[in-house]
Design brief:
- This protein has 367 residues and is mainly alpha-helical.
- The protein has one domain.
- It contains 16 helices and six strands.
Length: 367
């Protein structure tokens, strides 16, 4: 049954948890003289990611004259897309990078040139996901078109869900393909994201969305057609998105839909969530591979998702430095802080979560 609330969703008053966290984190950054936007570390990383993205694209389109070269360059290009999304687009969307205002304006356009509407992303991610994490009916990340997944205990069980732990992983690959070709257009035309009706965008914003989509399809499909057979281009386009989509999906699922995460249910009349907003962010989120330098670098800090949700305006290069503050403060206030030691253990936790929610709830069994 779809959740409907008599009033807008709100959270209970502060118990001092977030105030204490902000005080300690700001003090730490000031003492270490660390700028929130990441400084030279983030600029260097961005240059590397953009170089990898461009070079892998050039090699895939113009120099992949054998199947082996196409497979290797296609895989690297897909990872270049993922690195761009994790490390550049995500931080720029939260205004946590870069410091220079002109460069900031330029980088904010990267989602559009990568095939995704920045306008809709800001609503879906910055507003709905970050404000209402794991709340069914509002957090768009747990609302799957057609209800083919059950990603919250509050969502209605369907017979197809009994197999979701089997079909989920291959279907995750379709995320970005659906996003680029269907989802953005559907949301613009309906003016809704799930049950949330967002402010009507200006005509110029809609025009820009269409132009950006044409630019994206131009370099991803049209240009390659001048140098490669049609079948090769179509197969390459789909395969790149399957790899990219799977990579993106998995990382976001490991941060919010694993054993141990909470799924708050607002009061049906008042819309009130019983806990402080920041506490809900911690308990509805999960870190994984927190001590892995490779994971922190590759995932753009998204493996330290708790720290990101609490401080989205701080660049991800600082998350590993502040995670001890967040963990210790959570323990001090008796806030559940969930963390899986490795990517593999997080995958297992997600698989167990999918399998548990695949079972028909006891109440429904008795009806």
């Amino acid at each position: 049954m779809e959740n409907t609330y008599g009033k807008d969703v709100t959270f209970s008053g502060s118990i001092g948890f977030y105030d204490e966290l902000k005080r300690q984190v700001n003090k730490f950054l000031k003492e270490k003289r660390l700028h929130k936007t990441g400084g030279w570390r983030m600029i260097t990383k961005m240059m590397f990611v953009l170089t990898l993205f461009v070079l892998s694209y050039v090699f895939l389109v113009f120099f992949s004259d054998t199947l082996f070269k196409a497979i290797v360059s296609g895989f690297i290009f897909a990872q270049g897309f993922a690195l761009l999304a994790f490390n550049v687009m995500h931080d720029s969307g939260h205004e946590s990078f870069p410091k220079n205002k002109y460069l900031k304006k330029l980088i904010r356009l990267t989602p559009d040139f990568a095939g995704f509407s920045r306008l809709l992303w800001c609503v879906r991610h910055n507003v709905l996901h970050h404000c209402y994490t794991n709340i069914d009916g509002l957090d768009d990340d747990i609302q799957i078109v057609g209800g083919i997944f059950r990603l919250s205990p509050e969502q209605k069980w369907r017979p197809c869900h009994r197999f979701q732990y089997i079909y989920a992983f291959p279907l995750y690959s379709l995320l970005t393909l659906s996003w680029v070709l269907f989802s953005d257009f559907q949301k613009i035309m309906t003016g809704r994201i799930g049950r949330y009706e967002y402010p009507k965008p200006a005509p110029v914003a809609i025009i820009w969305l269409v132009i950006a989509k044409f630019i994206y399809l131009g370099y991803m499909v049209v240009l390659p057609l001048f140098y490669n057979p049609v079948a090769h281009v179509i197969i390459g386009f789909v395969c790149v998105h399957l790899i990219f989509g799977f990579t993106i999906s998995i990382i976001f699922q490991l941060a919010h839909t694993v054993e141990g995460n909470s799924f708050p249910k607002p009061n049906n009349v008042t819309g009130m969530v019983k806990k402080e907003w920041a506490i809900n962010q911690v308990e509805a989120t999960c870190d994984f591979a927190p001590t892995s330098k490779l994971a922190n670098w590759y995932f753009g800090g998204l493996n330290l998702q708790i720290e990101h949700h609490l401080f989205p305006n701080i660049c991800h290069v600082h998350y590993s430095a502040i995670q001890n503050i967040v963990r210790d403060t959570s323990r001090k206030f008796n806030v559940l802080y969930v963390s899986n030691k490795t990517v593999f253990s997080a995958l297992i936790a997600h698989y167990k979560f999918l399998k548990r929610l695949a079972e028909k709830p006891v109440m429904e069994k008795n009806l």
